[in-house]
Amino acid sequence: MPLFIYVLGLAVFAQGTSEFMLSGLAPDIARDLSVSMGAAASLTSAYAIGMIIGAPVMAALSARWSRRRALAGFLAAFVVVHAVGATATDFRLLFGTRVVAAVVNAGFLAVAMSVAVALAGPAARARATAVLLSGVTLSCVVGVPAGALLGDRSGWRAVFAAVAALCLPALVWVFRSAPAGTAGLPDVPVRQEARALRSRTVWLTLVLAAVVNGATFATFAYLAVIATDVTHLPGDAVPGLLAVFGAGAFAGVTLAGRTGGGRLGRGVTLALCALATGWAVLAATSTHAVALFVVTVVQGGLSFGIGSALATHVMHVATRAPALSGSFATVALNVGAFLGPLLAGTVTGAAGDYRGAAWVSAALATTAVAILAVARTRAALGRTREAR
């Protein structure tokens, strides 16, 4: 595996930390900038929307750029907006920096996925994708807790500055080692790439990725409050629970990268069934601390392992869209991450029980199983007709 892919993973780690760190910094931001908690919390939604919009737009705009120019440009912009955010005294300016950061983050991730797959080659496609996604999972395990600790001791501005500083080694390496050309990507016009993405198989995989990630973040967004209000754990146990989820996610992504080849085999189907069952088990047993921790680590592994396999499959089946396939995988995952918590919020608000979030995850994962089963049944019937 080329060393440069791990450099990209470092940048993704810093960007993942930035994406998720606001959950622990919102109260401090609200006090410092004299805004409501709702306004401060909207910074997270702004980032999610920026990721959804930014991935396809930035990938299309940078499709014909050299990979060095695209990666360095997006990463440099990410550093600058975090430096500006660290010094912002106006909430509107901070909000704007979050949107811009998300857009360039999405652009960087989309380009990085295509570069990693091209550099690794077809045989190591799944592993290369897993290295990048492991940066996101490690941000949950290490980056977000470290950011919360730094924010508690030095204020939220120090966390923004730290994220910018963390990107600098990767930025230097990108300038030195990123491919000067298109990293072996075929020279395919953007319009032709867009037509290639109309494939039923591509859209099936994208829908599955969105539904699975929706299930993941429906519960992840409420995991802390489930621990304190349902399991009745002390508040200082929450970072450990989140770290356990992240550790499971890292293990799941790593395993998917070593065992998957870009195809959705029987293993993915079984994992989806286990995922749906696991969320139901978490909802039913979350009053018990040991059960909560055990099921959380398992669900972290299944959720991110399946997500990694689906993202890799998009790259595998959309080879005629080398620049845009990674961006659409990014969009699908972020659509799920945005809509899952919204659906969970509606259900928990109506039921008055935070365990409803886990039931939402179970329902979404079951929906993914049903979608895949229907698609495979139709494909089998189609093959039968052709054989006749």
Low-confidence stretches: none
Give the DSSP E fraction (strand runs of 2 or more residues): under 5%
Largest sheet: none
**Basic shape:** globular
The count of strands amounts to: 0
* Structural class estimated from helices and strands: mainly alpha
Give the C-alpha Rg.
Answer: 20 Å
Q: What is the straight-line distance between the termini?
A: 45 Å
Question: What string, H for helix and E for strand, traces the elements in order?
Answer: HHHHHHHHHHHHHHH
Return the average pLDDT rounded to an integer.
Answer: 84
Number of helices: 15
Helix content: over 70%
Structure explained in plain terms:
This protein is 84% helix and 0% strand. The relative contact order is 0.14. With 388 residues, the protein is mostly helical. The longest helix is centred in the last third of the chain and has 32 residues, at 356-387. The chain is built from 15 helices and no strands. The protein is globular, with a radius of gyration of 20 Å.
Topology at a glance:
Layout: H1 3-20, H2 22-33, H3 37-61, H4 67-87, H5 91-120, H6 125-154, H7 156-177, H8 190-196, H9 200-220, H10 223-230, H11 238-259, H12 266-285, H13 289-317, H14 325-351, H15 356-387
Helix pairs in contact: 1-5, 1-6, 1-7, 2-3, 3-5, 3-14, 4-5, 4-7, 5-6, 5-14, 6-7, 6-11, 6-13, 9-13, 9-14, 9-15, 10-11, 11-13, 12-13, 12-15, 13-14, 14-15
What descriptive keywords fit this protein?
388 residues; mainly alpha; 15 helices; 84% helix; globular
